[in-house]
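re: ur question from earlier - yeah i can do the single chain one, its not a big deal. heres the input i used so u can compare w yours
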Amino acid sequence: MTGCVSRPSGRGVTSGITKHWLSSAELPDSRSIKQKVTVQIDPSVCILAANCVGIEPKLFQIGQEPYIELIDATGISQGTEYTFEPSETELEMIEEAVDSCPTRAISMQTAI
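and the output i got, formated as tokens:
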């Protein structure tokens, strides 16, 4: 049911308020709503296994430091913490990279 109208209860006068219930087709697709995430590398546990680099080389790189570094869309190093709005595909790749890290040095959080 996509709509509902208030009916008189038999007592007094109703205000004529119309309630509208959203169907699932009218709800925004949560995948289309971009939100910022923060990806972090814990350099104290990173062993440069580089699984993340193989999965998402547009975000993870082996740099000058003895741990993986994060890079932005232009290739500039962001160090060990980077906040941005990933595409759905990028988000899936980041999740895969987090899961593939043997030392759990990668974390991802929704940014506020």
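The beta strands are 3-5, 18-20, 37-41, 60-62, 68-71, 77-79, 81-84, 106-110. not sure if urs matches, ping me
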